[in-house]
Amino acid sequence: MIGTEIPVLAVLCGDRRPPDMDAVEAAAEIRYTDEKGLPDALRGADALFVYDFLSTAVPGAWHAADRIRWVHIASAGVDPVMFPELRESDVVLTNSRGVFDDSIAEYVLGVVIAFAKDLPRSLELQRQRRWQHRESERVAGRRALVVGTGPIGRAIARLLRAAGLDVSGMGRRARGEDPDFGTVHASADLVRVAAGFDYVIAVAPLTDETKGMFDAAAFAAMKPSARFVNVGRGELVVTDELVTALRAGEIAGAALDVFDTEPLPVDHPLWTLDNVVISPHMSGDFVGWRNTLVEVFADNFARWRDGRPLRNVVDKQLGYVPSGH
User: Fold this and answer.
1) Which domains are present in the chain?
2) pLDDT given for residue 290 in this prediction
3) Enzyme catalytic residues
4) How far is CA 151 from CA 10, 12, 198, 299, in A?
5) Are the CB atoms for 231 and 199 separated by under 8 Å?
6) CA 307 to chain centre
7) d(CA 38, CA 74)
8) What is the pLDDT of residues 185-232, one digit of tens each?
9) What PANTHER family does the record point to (predicted)?
């Protein structure tokens, strides 16, 4: 609640301004800025909208944030703004949870089917004009482990179950009788349980506990026929150890939408592996997604102006929005 004064809103957006901001612009003084101008935009601002959610500029400019009370990021992941000064402050942090759930789930189902039906090889043979008959796998009856039990993970679980897969989850703590996953394993048990699954899907938030959780030990524990899918964060994976596992045949393939370095360098060995599907951090980006992100922010802005409870409030100690919030 900020009373009757006109709030000052800094918007980190670079050269691409967010669409459909008319309602917000009518109710606030807006300072659109790129990374270079962020410190000046933050001085005297009441709130910050991190529309450029891939930017890592906020920590370096935070010294100028002398009045900020609320930060909203246009993504589900909040790791770009999880620096100590913000984490330890009383500034409220919200994210855009819910925007990308179904589209990311569709991507995951798509790559599962692509692997099972050997579609990448079919496209390559088509380009070569080669008629090469092969047998393909069924997806029904295969087992999938979804590592990350938030809304995106649940959307993935529901869609994979609808396709006939047997789905389990993995989260901070083990539990049974979950409505979407059935059984949820504890993340600490990844190496112990990974061998039981044909697809291992990473969608966990990036935290101190999850960073690098997919390492040599995790890949060695998986079936040689297993496929790994990462739609979470690139830093969940020790990339060099994934490359080694793929080359050694410790796992059969990987579909990767996120990387620890983006864009993926042109000379990176992942480009050369024929058992890898690469997409440029686009699994959730459906037509109109930018407008939807602004709708989520504009709704929260109206709530903030009116003093009503905000949606998608992040627990800054956990690094994500707890279930039920």
Assistant:
1) 8-99+287-306 (3.40.50.720), 101-278 (3.40.50.720)
2) 97
3) 233, 262, 281
4) 28, 26, 22, 19
5) no
6) 29
7) 16
8) 999 999 999 999 999 999 999 999 999 999 999 999 999 999 999 999
9) 2-HACID_DH_C DOMAIN-CONTAINING PROTEIN, D-ISOMER SPECIFIC 2-HYDROXYACID DEHYDROGENASE NAD-BINDING DOMAIN-CONTAINING PROTEIN
Strands 92-94 and 70-73: parallel
Cα–chain-centroid distance for residue 292? 16
* Distance of alpha carbon 50 from alpha carbon 13, whole angstroms: 7
CA atoms of 254 and 275, how far apart (whole Å): 7
The C-alpha R_g of the chain, in whole angstroms, comes to: 21
**Peptide bond between residue 263 and the one before it cis (omega within 30 degrees of 0):** yes
Nearest CA to 45 among 56, 59, 61, 23? 61
| DSSP code per residue over 258-308 | --SSSSPPTT-GGGG-TTEEE--S-TT--TTHHHHHHHHHHHHHHHHHHTP
By residue count, the chain amounts to 325
Buried-exposed string 308-325: b where 16+ CB fall within 10 A, e elsewhere: eebbbbbebeebbbeeee
Q: CA–CA separation, 116 vs 21, rounded Å?
A: 43
For 95-145, the pLDDT digits (tens) are 999 999 999 999 999 999 999 999 999 999 999 999 999 999 999 999 999
How many Cβ atoms are within 10 Å of 81's Cβ, its own excluded? Answer: 25
The dihedral built from the CA positions of residue 149, 153, 158 and 162, taken in this order, carries a sign that is: negative
Instruction: Return the amino acid letter for 233.
Output: R
| Pair of tokens at residue 249 | 């045949």
E strand map for the chain: 8-12, 29-33, 47-50, 70-73, 92-94, 143-147, 166-171, 175-178, 182-186, 199-202, 227-230, 253-256, 276-278
Residue 4: its pLDDT value, please? 65
211 half-sphere exposure, CB direction, 13 A CA radius? 5
pLDDT computed for residue 1 by the predictor: 46
| Measured distance between the N- and C-terminal CA atoms of the chain, rounded to whole angstroms | 19
